[in-house]
Amino acid sequence: MHRILVADDETGIREIIREYAEFEGDFVMEAGNGLEAVNICKTQDFDIIVMDVMMPKLDGFSACKEIKKFKDIPVLMLSARGEEYDKLFGFEVGIDDYVVKPFSPKELMARINVIINRNLNKETAKASGALEFTGLKVDMAGREVYVEGKKAELTPKEYDLLFYLIKNQNLALSREKLLNDVWGYDFTGDDRTVDTHIKMLRNSLSPYRDYIVTLRGVGYKFQVKEH
């Protein structure tokens, strides 16, 4: 049984999600606005939050940022808007998926289950110090990377860059943020430094180079794709 918080100011939307979630044996709590969702999360734990963007008192993006300050709960964002900017902004504030209304309840539940299972796998991997993505194994504690069982020889900065991307999996990371957080605020390089190291890292990860996704005009993110 999974614990799900559904935050949406539309009663009908909350009822539909509750009906399908409870049919699968999940427990559901509801919030009618972003502020209520934040307050509930202060006293309750959930496996995932399904959050609408446009809500009274506090919008979904702001509520997500507030919740992320004190709890690391996966968030699936709902919105009537499907613009790329909204999706990228959502990933920047830490959401795990973005679904545009109207949506298929069955597809929504499938996405919810994928996110929950992925998060459970990440927690298990953290405990063991290793992460596996199909044929790519990353041992952060031992600073080792294996591609289809063969150890990859990465430069120290490639290790740092890959580990940072993985720790922020599915989040849009600008070149500036990568420079600041991976190279340091006093680094005097420019965006080309990031692009060069991304190219080197992709070559080292082949055939899993496409796990590092280019976000045109923004930067990069680490996203696992089916092979």
Short key terms for the protein model shown above:
227 residues, alpha/beta, Rossmann fold, Arc Repressor Mutant, subunit A, 2 domains, five-stranded parallel beta sheet, four-stranded antiparallel beta sheet, 8 helices, 12 strands
Task: Describe this structure as you would to a colleague.
The chain is α/β, with parallel strands linked by helices and 227 residues long. The protein folds into two domains: 3-127, Rossmann fold (3-Layer(aba) Sandwich); 131-222, Arc Repressor Mutant, subunit A, CATH 1.10.10.10. Helices cover 44% and strands 21% of the residues. The protein contains eight helices and twelve strands. A hairpin with a 2-residue loop joins strand 8 (144-147) and strand 9. Helix 6 (156-167) crosses helix 7. It is globular and about 55 Å long.
